[in-house]
Design a protein that fits this description.
The complex is a heterodimer of chains A (593) and B (333). With 593 residues, chain A is of the alpha+beta class. Chain A has a five-stranded mixed β-sheet. A four-stranded mixed β-sheet of chain A has the order 1-10-9-8, covered by helices on one side. In chain A, strands 4-5-7-6 form a four-stranded antiparallel β-sheet. Classes of the chains: A alpha+beta (593), B mainly alpha (333).
C-alpha cells in the first residue's frame, strides 16, 4: 500500500464535495418537479393562485361582506394527523382540518356557533317522521363537488354503505351508526335515514355524515360487486401529494400535505357552490412542543394557537405581546370534563358512602388555585355547564374532610389497630390510583389528593401507566380508581357512559356504574324528541348521578387561545373559531402568502 | 479474509432471525392494545370520546389485522412477507410501512449526518489540542467544558436555546423549530438551502454537543499514548517538526479507534432522537418509532427495529473490515 499523501486527502475532499453537489442538484430537481406538477394539478383542479384575484365570474357570493378576499393564515396543530382520509381518519387534527368546521368536506347539517341550533349546510330542509324512526333531508340542488358534479342523495347512501363494510377501518363512524337501519335515496336530492329504534340524536348523527363523492371513490360500483375490495382501496387511500386535490364539496380543498415540512395547506375552492370565504389559504402547521409553538407565534410564524395555563399567565402578558395578539378565554359548548373514576364494582368503592367520602377529600379549589392559575372551573356532573342538559340547581360537591370521616365510619371503616390507617374486616383502606404517564399535572393533582387522604387515614398509591396500557386497564376494568377526561359534545347521550349495559364489551362505562333508575331514565332520554322534556329528564339523571358520585367530577376548562391581530373577524363562538369567517387586510398580509 | 467474510455473512441470518423473534415476542408480551383497536387515538390530553360497545366491531377489526391468529403463526406470516421485502401496512394510517418510513427518514438523516460531521470536525482538533497541551489551562478548561456539556440534558438545553435564540424578546437569530419557513417552495435554490441550514442550526447543536466530550476524550487518550511512543521520539530526534510528528505520525495511528467508531454510528443515523424531534417539531424517525410504540402499531415497530438491526450488523461487519484494513497487525486469516 502506498503512502497516504496530502494529494489523497484533497482528492477525497473533492469527491465528497462532488457527491454533495450532486445530491443538492437532485434535491433542486425534485423541487422544480414538485413546483411544476403542483402548478399543473392546481390548473386541472380549477383552484389556483393563478386566479388569486378572485373567481372570474362576477356573480360570486361572498360569505363575509366587506372582507378583503385573499391572504392566508397559519394555524397551530399540536399533533400530526395520521391521515387525511375523510372516511378512515382517527384523530382530532384530521377532524379539525377536514370536517369539523366544514372546511373541506361538508355534512347535511351544522350547528350555529351562537345559538347551537342546527342549520342546513348541504340540506335545505329536513323533517323527522311522525313515528320518530326516520329523518328525511332535502339536499340543496345547487350543491356541487369541486369537479362540478352535483351532490346527490346517492352519495349519502354510498357513504353509509361504505362505512358499514365490516373491514372498513372506520370505527369512529360505525359506532354511531349501529342502530341505523338503512339509508335510502328517495330521489336525486332527497335522502332518508331509517333507525331501528327511536333515538333523539338521529338528526345529529345523520346530519353529520359527510358527503363523499361516489363517482370518484367508486367509479366501478364495487360497493355492490366487491365491498371488501372497496374497503381495501379506501383504507389505503391517503390524499397523495402529487395529484390533484381530492374532490370534495367544501369551500376549501386539500392543496397539499407537506409531510416533512409539517404543514397541511388548504386552498380556497374557487368553484365552491355556496358563498365563498375570504381567506385564500388556510395552513395548518404541526408543532409538537408547546414551547416551540409559542416561540413561533411570537416570531410571526403562527397566527393562532391554544395556550397552556402557564403560557396564559406568565408568558403572554407583556404589552408587546398584547399589542400583536388577542387573547381569548371562553367555554366551549362541546367542552368535556376531567374526573376521577371509582371502580363501582370493586370494594370499597362499591359503597356510595365511600365514593362520597373520597369526593369530600378532593381539594379542587386548591388545585385550581395552586396548580392551574385559577384558569379552570369545577365540574359537577356529566353535562357541560353551557348545555341545557345540565341541572342548574346542583351546586358543587363540598370539600369537607370531617364529613368524609363520618361517611367512612358509617361504611364501617375504623382505625382498630391504631396505625393511623383506617381498616375494615382486618384490611387497611388502601388503593391504587391509576393515572396516564407523562402528564405532570395528573401527578401534581394526585399528590395533593394523597395528602388529604392520608390525613383521614386512607392510603393511596399513585401508579402512572403508559397510555395504551392504561386504556387496556380501563377496558378490562382492572383498576381501583382512574383519572381521565371525556371529550364533550353539545348535546350528549348519557347511554354510553352511564347505562349499566355499557359495562359489557369494553363500553365506555368502565367504572361499572349501575343504577336501575338512571338506566330507565337514560332509555327515556333516548326516545324523547321534545327538547324541554328531554332536558328535564337529564336534570334528574344529573341529580341522581351527583348523589351517587360514581366519579369525582373534577374540572372543566375554558379554552385559552391567542390570535394574531392581523386577523379580522376572529371571535370565538360557543363551538370555537370558524375559520371561514376570518380575513386578513391586504396591508397586513405576509409577503408571498 | 474472504473465508472470514463469508462466515460473518452467514452468521448474519440467524442473528437477524433471533433479533426479530425477540422483538416480536417482547412487543406482544408488552401490556396494552393497539390504539386502532381502542377506536380512540392515543392523545396527550388524556381525553377520550365515549363510544358504543360492540363486540362485533372489535372482532371484525382483530380479524382484519390478523390478531385473531396465535402469536407464532403471526410471526411466521410476518417473516414470510419480510422475506419478500414486504413490511405490511401501518395500522395507524394504512399506508405501506416503507412509505411511512421514507416520509420520516429524510429529516433524521439530514440532522444526524450534519451532527456527526460537526462532532468529528470539532472534537478531533480539540482532542489533538488537548493532548499536545496536556495538563495546561487549555486542556483542563476544554475538558471541563466538554464534560459539563456532556452532563447537560438535551430536554433542558433545547428549550433554553429556543427561548433565548428564537425569541424577539431576546435574540431572534434562528427560527423556532421545523426545517423550513412557511412556503419553502416559493424560494429559489440558494435562499431555500440557506433557510434549511438556518433551521438546522439549533437541532444540530442539540444533537452534537454531548458527543463532543466522548470523541475528544477518545482522540486525546489515543494521541497521548502515541506521543510517548518511541517512534515519535525517533521522528523528533531525526529532525521532523513537532507539527509533522504529531499530525503525520502520532495522529494517524491514534485515529484507528476513531474511524472504527464511525461504523458504529451507522445504525444511529436512522434512529432519530424523540426528544430533539419533539422540541424542534421535526417529524423524523424518533417521532415515528416513539408514536408507533405508543399506539402499538406493530408493523411499524417491527420494520424500524429490523432496519436498525440490519444496520447494526452491517456496522459491526464494516468495523471489522476497517480494522483489518487500517491496522496491519490485525488479520482474520
Amino acid at each position: 500500500m502506498s503512502e497516504w499523501k496530502l494529494r489523497d486527502t484533497v482528492m477525497v475532499l473533492f469527491m465528497i464535495l462532488v457527491v454533495g453537489i450532486m445530491l443538492l442538484q437532485m434535491v433542486q430537481n425534485d423541487r422544480l418537479y414538485d413546483r411544476v406538477s403542483q402548478a399543473i394539478r392546481l390548473l386541472e383542479a380549477g383552484s389556483s393562485r393563478a386566479t388569486a384575484t378572485g373567481p372570474a365570474s362576477s356573480s360570486v357570493r361572498w360569505r363575509v361582506p366587506g372582507a378583503e378576499p385573499g391572504g392566508s393564515v397559519i394555524i397551530h396543530e399540536s399533533a400530526r394527523p395520521t391521515n387525511l382520509n375523510i372516511i378512515t381518519y382517527k384523530d382530532h387534527a384530521a377532524a379539525v382540518i377536514l370536517s369539523d368546521s366544514g372546511l373541506v368536506y361538508e355534512t347535511l347539517l351544522e350547528r350555529d356557533g351562537r345559538t347551537l341550533e342546527f342549520k342546513g349546510l348541504l340540506a335545505e330542509s329536513w323533517s323527522v317522521a311522525d313515528d320518530r324512526l326516520s329523518v328525511t333531508f332535502r339536499i340543496r340542488p345547487e350543491a356541487r363537488y369541486s369537479d362540478g358534479v352535483p351532490v346527490t342523495a346517492h352519495d349519502f347512501v354510498f357513504a353509509y354503505r361504505a362505512t358499514m363494510i365490516p373491514t372498513m377501518d372506520c370505527q369512529r363512524i360505525q359506532t354511531y351508526l349501529l342502530d341505523c337501519d338503512g339509508v335510502d335515496a328517495l330521489d336525486d336530492h332527497t335522502v332518508r335515514f331509517r333507525w331501528k329504534k327511536k333515538y333523539f340524536k338521529i338528526l345529529e348523527v345523520a346530519g353529520s355524515l359527510p358527503a363523499v363523492p361516489r363517482h370518484v371513490l367508486d367509479p366501478e360500483n364495487l360497493i355492490d360487486t366487491d365491498p371488501a375490495k372497496l374497503a381495501e382501496r379506501i383504507n389505503a387511500w391517503d390524499p397523495p401529494l402529487k395529484s390533484p386535490p381530492p374532490v370534495a364539496s367544501g369551500p376549501y380543498l386539500l392543496e397539499s400535505w407537506d409531510k416533512p415540512g409539517n404543514r397541511v395547506i388548504l386552498a380556497r375552492n374557487e368553484r365552491y357552490w355556496g358563498a365563498l370565504p375570504p381567506l385564500q389559504q388556510i395552513i395548518f402547521r404541526i408543532v409538537t412542543s408547546d414551547t416551540t409553538a409559542l416561540q413561533a407565534l411570537k416570531a410571526g410564524e403562527l397566527d393562532y394557537m391554544t395556550l397552556t395555563s402557564e403560557q396564559w399567565t406568565n408568558q403572554t402578558v407583556d404589552p408587546s405581546f398584547l399589542e400583536r395578539f388577542h387573547k381569548f378565554k371562553y367555554l366551549r359548548a362541546d367542552g368535556g370534563y376531567s374526573y376521577i373514576g371509582w371502580n363501582n364494582r370493586r370494594p370499597p368503592f362499591d359503597d356510595r358512602r365511600v365514593r362520597q367520602a373520597m369526593s369530600c377529600c378532593m381539594p379542587r379549589e386548591k388545585i385550581v388555585e395552586k396548580l392551574l392559575y385559577n384558569l379552570r372551573e369545577l365540574a359537577n356532573g356529566p353535562f357541560s355547564p353551557l348545555s341545557r342538559q345540565a341541572n342548574p340547581d346542583i351546586g358543587q360537591w363540598p370539600f369537607d374532610p370531617e364529613r368524609a370521616r363520618v361517611l367512612l365510619a358509617e361504611a364501617g371503616f375504623r382505625d382498630t389497630d391504631g396505625d393511623g390507617i383506617l381498616d375494615r374486616d382486618g384490611r387497611p383502606f388502601e388503593f391504587e390510583m391509576s393515572i396516564p404517564a407523562g402528564l405532570q399535572i395528573y401527578t401534581q393533582i394526585m399528590s395533593l389528593f394523597q395528602d388529604e387522604l392520608s390525613r383521614i387515614g386512607v392510603r393511596m398509591r399513585i401508579e402512572p401507566y403508559e397510555w395504551s396500557v392504561y386504556v387496556d386497564k380501563l377496558d378490562n376494568r382492572a383498576f381501583d380508581a382512574c383519572s381521565l377526561s371525556w371529550i364533550g359534545s353539545v348535546e350528549s347521550d348519557p347511554y354510553q357512559i352511564w347505562h349499566s349495559s355499557s359495562y359489557e364489551n369494553k363500553g365506555s362505562n368502565h367504572v361499572g356504574y349501575s343504577n336501575p333508575e338512571v338506566d330507565r331514565l337514560i332509555l327515556e332520554v333516548r326516545e324523547e324528541f321534545d327538547e324541554d322534556r328531554r332536558n328535564a329528564i337529564c336534570h334528574r339523571i344529573h341529580a341522581i348521578i351527583f348523589e351517587d358520585q360514581p366519579y369525582t367530577f373534577m374540572l372543566t376548562g375554558p379554552r385559552l387561545e391567542a390570535v394574531s391581530r392581523r386577523i379580522q373577524n376572529a371571535e370565538p363562538g360557543k363551538l370555537g373559531m370558524d375559520f371561514r369567517d376570518w380575513w386578513v387586510p391586504v396591508a397586513l398580509r405576509r409577503p408571498g402568502g | 479474509m474472504r473465508d472470514y467474510l463469508i462466515r460473518r455473512l452467514l452468521l448474519v441470518v440467524p442473528t437477524l432471525l433471533g433479533i426479530t423473534l425477540i422483538t416480536f415476542v417482547i412487543i406482544r408480551l408488552a401490556p396494552g392494545e393497539p390504539a386502532t383497536l381502542g377506536g380512540t387515538a392515543a392523545g396527550g390530553e388524556a381525553g377520550r370520546q365515549a363510544t358504543a360497545a360492540s363486540a362485533e366491531l372489535l372482532r371484525a377489526k382483530k380479524e382484519l389485522l390478523g390478531l385473531d391468529k396465535p402469536v407464532p403463526v403471526q410471526f411466521l406470516i410476518w417473516l414470510r412477507r419480510v422475506a419478500l421485502l414486504d413490511f405490511g401496512h401501518s395500522w395507524s394510517n394504512n399506508q405501506p410501512v416503507i412509505t411511512v418510513i421514507l416520509d420520516h427518514i429524510s429529516p433524521t438523516l439530514q440532522l444526524n449526518i450534519l451532527a456527526v460531521a460537526v462532532i468529528y470536525a470539532i472534537s478531533i482538533p480539540l482532542g489533538v489540542g488537548q493532548a499536545v497541551r496536556r495538563g495546561r489551562l487549555f486542556d483542563r478548561s476544554t475538558t471541563l467544558i466538554s464534560f459539563l456539556l456532556y452532563a447537560a440534558p438535551v430536554y433542558w438545553v433545547g428549550p433554553l436555546l429556543l427561548i433565548y435564540f428564537c425569541n424577539p424578546e431576546h435574540y431572534a437569530w434562528f427560527p423556532a423549530g421545523e426545517l423550513n419557513r412557511p412556503f419553502p417552495e416559493n424560494l429559489a435554490f440558494f435562499p431555500w438551502l440557506y433557510d434549511r441550514l438556518v433551521h438546522l442550526v439549533l437541532p444540530v447543536v442539540c444533537q452534537s454537543y454531548a458527543g463532543l466530550a466522548y470523541l475528544s476524550k477518545q482522540t486525546r487518550a489515543g494521541l497521548l499514548e502515541n506521543l510517548q511512543a518511541d517512534y515519535v521520539r525517533t521522528a523528533r530526534a531525526k529532525g521532523v517538526s513537532r507539527f509533522r510528528a504529531v499530525v503525520h505520525h502520532a495522529l494517524r495511528n491514534s485515529l484507528i479507534p476513531i474511524v472504527t467508531i464511525m461504523a458504529m454510528i451507522l445504525p444511529g443515523l436512522i434512529g432519530g432522537s424523540i426528544i430533539i424531534e419533539t422540541i424542534f417539531s421535526i417529524q423524523g424517525m424518533g417521532y415515528l418509532s416513539f408514536n408507533a410504540i405508543l399506539q402499538r402499531d406493530y408493523p411499524v415497530i417491527m420494520a424500524t427495529t429490523t432496519f436498525a438491526a440490519v444496520l447494526t450488523l452491517v456496522g459491526l461487519l464494516l468495523q471489522d473490515i476497517l480494522y483489518a484494513w487500517l491496522d496491519p497487525r490485525v488479520s482474520y486469516a
